[in-house]
Amino acid sequence: MTVRNAYRHAAALTLTVAALLPMPLVSATAATADQGATSAHLEAGDPSGEALRLLAQPPFPPTDLSLLATQAYPAGPPMQPAPPRAITVSELVRQLNTTLKLRGRRAVEEGLAVFQSQQISAIVPDLNLRAALASLASSPAAGSIQTVREGLVRRVAFAALPNPSVIAQTFTAPHGQIDIFVNQRYRYEDFRLLGVTLSHETLHQDGTFNNNEEAISATLHTAYYGQLLLEQPQLATSRTELARRLNTGLMALLNTRDDLGRQRLTHATGNVLPGTVPPLPSFGAAYLGITPGGGTATDPTSTPGNANLDFYLNAITRTRHTGAAFNTATVQFLDHHQAWATPSQRIRLAHLLKLRLPSRPGKHIPQGPVKMHPSPATDGLAWRGSGSGT
Ligand SMILES: [Zn+2]
Question: Does a structural domain hold residue 389?
Answer without folding.
Answer: no
